[in-house]
Amino acid sequence: MSATCEFQAKDYRSDLKPIWCPGCGDFSVVASIYRALAAIGRPPHEIAFVSGIGCSSRIPGYTTAYGFNSVHGRALPIAQGIKLSSPELLVLAAGGDGDGFSIGGGHIAHAIRRNMDLTYIVMDNQIYGLTKGQLSPTSQKGRITCTSHYGSLEAPVNPLLYVLAYGAGFVAQASPTDIAGMAAIIEEAIRYPGFAFVNIQSPCVTYGEEAQQIKGLKAISESLAALGHDSADRLAAMDLAQHYGSKLHLGVFYRDPDPAPTYGDLVRDRQALLSQGALPKERILDLFIKS
Length: 291
Ligand SMILES: Cc1ncc(C[n+]2csc(CCOP(=O)(O)OP(=O)(O)O)c2C)c(N)n1
Ligand code: SF4
Prior knowledge:
Elements: H1 26-40, E1 47-51, E2 66-69, H2 75-85, E3 90-96, H3 97-103, H4 105-113, E4 119-124, H5 159-165, E5 170-174, H6 179-191, E6 196-201, H7 214-220, E7 221-223, H8 234-241, E8 248-255, H9 263-275, H10 282-290
Parallel strand pairs: 1-2, 1-3, 3-4, 4-6, 5-6, 7-8
Antiparallel strand pairs: 5-8
The site of thiamine diphosphate (TPP) has 19 residues, from strand 3 and helix 3.
């Protein structure tokens, strides 16, 4: 790993011009990521940024980090593989609510229970943006879209409760209504030693509802810090997270005050014991012969 150097936000901005619709919330998200990475100061070549497929999943291409715009819903398995094989890299994964909580929803639980040391950013716009406005897993009940002409009959997934219930060590929410706050939250998430999740309410100006645009989001925003929330209290975090959809709580819901070892740490510890001869090697052979 290189020594920490001075970097500026512009050092993480690639030459590729974003093709998001003018006013899309994802512009502020990428700007916040540049700021967070500059504050951390790791050079771009020490960062791997993985996404799935969607408007939001274009994000790695707009940075100077190593990028992998992968397959719809598969950002997390790929990010985990990269982190395990190259633990020295800072690994970010990102995508939309459809990518993360619909097709890719099964992967989140396993990344969390392994406590993989990576940061997962979901740009939650309550719609499938790239494919032109279909119902997404976080769309509100009753929402009328081109795939729900008479209104959705399904209750939305609550991304905050979902990850808190699976035991994520760091859970936060941000929005373009507070760009400086969003950059600070992303920075804190990246610095957390373990799986960190940031849900970002990022308006889709083309297919999103009026209430989910900046003005509507501002009207329901509430800072967790101003509420006096204790981010070390998981149950208090779950209580607040229940208001997802009606209130927009911004800040850190939960930060494990005593972070558990990551999966990578445990693998390296076991390898060290094996190489010291502290564990019987026959058991490894047994494993291969039986499988
Ligand atoms: C396996 C697979 N299924 C479906 C699609 C089509 N598809 C591409 S993006 C997308 C959803 C995009 O919504 P979201 O993930 O919420 O991201 P957004 O575009 O809103 O940022 C879908 C269904 C695909 N590319 N691959
Ligand atoms: S369709 Fe929506 S999510 Fe996609 S770029 Fe446009 S505003 Fe952003």
